[in-house]
Design brief:
217 residues, Alpha-lytic protease prodomain-like, 7 helices
Length: 217
């Protein structure tokens, strides 16, 4: 009943020692991926602007969104399901906003006819891929967890796919001498963000609805 009447405190020391240890592990994992994504956002936002690359700028925004998402996930570890599901809903909406922003950026680069630097794209893309591969490995065990942890894994999964696509775009820009490969990859990243947002929002909505039913009973 206390779950229905008042917000529970962050569960830093649960009675169940196994649950407490699991939450501690979750926090360490989330802190690690949060730092990784924060550093890579700073690197890619500078490199993306310097290179004039839509895909790098999209990836930088993705790193920023993921940093905020992991911070939210860290905050709600150990809280009741409805708080974790609400956080996941917020993250899903953030992912959707990122996807729409990238769509707008793609349109702007098409209008400007930007030709990005393939060398910068490739170099930074490799660094970003390594960073996201580490995050992907850390979050692998939680890919089938609740919507909060699953959203964190989906974000990282999309990042790895996006990094591979950036490398393909760099090769395409180098080979063709045009900015179209960069534009195409940025559009794909926007689609990934929107698809991931739908998955996260759908699961979070189901968990929130389930929580209301349980509370009513």
């Amino acid at each position: 009943m206390d779950d229905c009447c008042a917000p529970p405190p962050l569960n830093l020391g649960p009675k169940n020692s196994d649950a407490g240890k699991q939450n501690d592990v979750l926090r360490r994992v989330l802190w690690a991926v949060l730092v990784i994504n924060g550093v890579m956002f700073a690197v890619e936002v500078v490199a993306g602007l310097a290179a004039g690359s839509a895909s790098l700028q999209a990836d930088a925004l993705d790193f920023l969104g993921d940093t905020a998402n992991y911070a939210i996930s860290l905050l709600v570890v150990g809280m009741a399901l409805r708080y974790r599901a609400s956080a996941a809903m917020a993250k899903g909406l953030t992912m959707a906003a990122f996807g729409l922003w990238v769509v707008a950026m793609v349109i702007w680069h098409i209008a400007q006819g930007t030709l990005p630097s393939a060398l910068t794209m490739g170099t930074v893309g490799i660094a970003a891929l390594v960073a996201n591969a580490v995050s992907f490995g850390l979050l692998w065990a939680y890919r089938h967890g609740d919507s909060n942890m699953r959203s964190a894994w989906i974000c990282t999964r999309n990042d790895v796919l996006g990094n591979l696509a950036v490398l393909v775009a760099a090769a395409g820009v180098f080979g063709t001498g045009t900015g179209w490969p960069d534009i195409i990859v940025a559009a794909i990243m926007a689609a990934l963000a929107l698809q991931g947002a739908v998955l996260v929002i759908r699961q979070a909505f189901g968990e929130l609805r389930h929580g209301k039913v349980m509370a009513a009973e």
